[in-house]
Amino acid sequence: MKLETTAKTDNSDIQKEIISKIGALINFKNLEPGDKLPSERMLSDKFGVSRSNVREAIQKLEFYGILKSIPQSGTFVADIGVIAMNGMIEDILRLDETDFKSLVETRILLELKTVRLAATRRTEKDLAYIKDALNAYRDKVLNGENAVQEDLLFHLAIAKASGNSTMNNFMLIIIPEIITNFQKHHVCDAGLSQRGIAEHQAIFDAIKDQNPQLGKQKMKDHFKELYQYCYHTD
Asked: Taking burial as the number of CB atoms within 10 A of a residue's CB, which of 4, 88, 141, 214 is the most buried?
């Protein structure tokens, strides 16, 4: 499992532009629920962007229920009214403007729930993934290297172990933004990273022992230490 990051200014602006243009296209052509959008290749040529950029924008709109992709058939407008669709697109675009505190608060709320679910539902395979992520984080920290991505991969492994695909998807949406802001605000310093090893281990042990209440408490302890910085930087 690998986490890739891109420059926020480039990727975010491209995504916002494509999503806006897709919404404008739907309105301009008066497309109704069930109507088919042009192919990714056609949209790529029309918007002057890569097909992968178009695909990511379509996947984002599909996640929020605005579009629906059918294998071998294409992408279609979902069963949603024009007014509701335009409002949802505006909301999606505003998500990219979320401030750091809001991202942290959202992540905390999600993870206090996912860790409890993971402790209840985790499989041996899930434990192996979480353990691998924990070891990767430990190795990076002990070598004095930046371990932000390994830290977040550990938490993503827990989200996956929760068995709740929606929560997992929400984590995947906000993770790139969190990485960008972590690096921008220099949150993950050496002291926090060192403490993070023991805290990650405690969380892993609670999940392994299938103790949801302890898992939640250890996650709370982890966030109290790791994020105290961001609540004192107004």
From this structure: 141
pLDDT digits (tens, 9 = 90+) for 94-134: 765 556 677 777 888 899 999 999 999 999 999 999 999 99
Sign for the pseudo-dihedral over CA of 91, 96, 102, 104: positive
SS (HEC) of the chain:
CCCCCCCHHHHHHHHHHHHHHHHHHHHHCCCCCCCECCCHHHHHHHHCCCHHHHHHHHHHHHHCCCEEEECCCEEEECCCCHHHHHHHHHHHHHHCCCCHHHHHHHHHHHHHHHHHHHHHHCCHHHHHHHHHHHHHHHHHHHCCCCCHHHHHHHHHHHHHHCCCHHHHHHHHHHHHHHHHHHHHHCCCCHHHHHHHHHHHHHHHHHHHCCCHHHHHHHHHHHHHHHCCCHHHCC
Backbone angles phi, psi at 23, to 5 degrees: -60, -40
| 146 token code pair | 């930046």
- Residues in the chain, how many? 234
CATH among 1.10.443.10, 2.30.22.10, 1.10.10.10, 2.60.40.1180 for 8-95: 1.10.10.10
Give CATH for domain 100-232.
Answer: 1.20.120.530
Other C-beta atoms closer than 10 Å to the C-beta of 77 total 21
The pLDDT-based confidence of 171 (bands split at 50, 70, 90) is: confident
Query: What's the mean pLDDT in 40-61?
Result: 92
Quick one: pLDDT band at residue 1, thresholds 50, 70, 90? very low
